[in-house]
Amino acid sequence: MRRVLRLLRQERGYSLVELLTVMVIMSVVLGGLTQLFVSGSNAEVDMNRRFQAQQAARVAMDRLRRDIHCSSAAVPPTATPPAASTVLTLTDPCVSGGYVSWCTVSSVGPGGATWYSLYRKLAATCDNTGSDYADSLVNPSGNVFTYAQQSTSSLSSVAVDVQVNLKPSLAQSTYKLDDTIVLRNSSRTCVTSSPTTFASPNPPCP
Fold it and tell me: For 72, which of 162, 182, 185, 189 could close a Cys bridge (C-beta 3.0–4.6 Å)?
């Protein structure tokens, strides 16, 4: 009993070794928790960015579909700025001036990768002064449009291929939207003098 009372009266603290051991254990635990929270936060930010990029691509595709459906033909752009990688100019009676153009303009993405932005402009040519509809496009050489002229057996059409990827180094993360859109107001006539920027009549004229 006396021994117990004597031990209780003593005011001995922790040794330096004990303190260091506790601090190391706490550092390991807190470091793991911090890493967990940081990873979760980064994943949420990345998911939000992906969603916004994909949503922008869907909005651009919807706007493109309306422009192409209302157009009667695709014509060569009056000028192709060096910054524009691909240009699609449509004769569109639905807009003032009668022309609407779409183009992709290159930019530098993460890690030095080449990105493209999709622009729309109410003019016979297109550049980065138009409305920016979509970013983070990773199409090879920025090629988004493939135009097929009308013939006696089919209306003209535009094949649209939009590929979005915020991390170009991860090919599996590419979000792709593609569609072949018919120019409803085009006529079933044979066009033999096709501009070099457009495809030959497909199917061929008889």
Answer: 185
Rounded mean pLDDT, 17-23 = 82
Gap between the Cα atoms of 152 and 147, Å rounded: 16
Note the Cα 179 to chain centre separation in Å: 16
Q: Residue type for 83, please? A: A
DSSP 200: P
pTM of the model: 0.74
Centroid of chain to Cα 98: 28
Residue in this structure with the two tokens 């006529």, named with its chain if needed? 187
Q: Is the pLDDT of residue 194 over 80?
A: no
The distance in angstroms from the start CA to the end CA of the chain is 115
- C-alpha span between 12 and 37 (Å, rounded): 39
Average pLDDT, the chain: 80
Please report, rounded to a whole number, the percentage of residues in the chain having pLDDT higher than 70: 81
CA 10 to the chain's CA centroid? 70
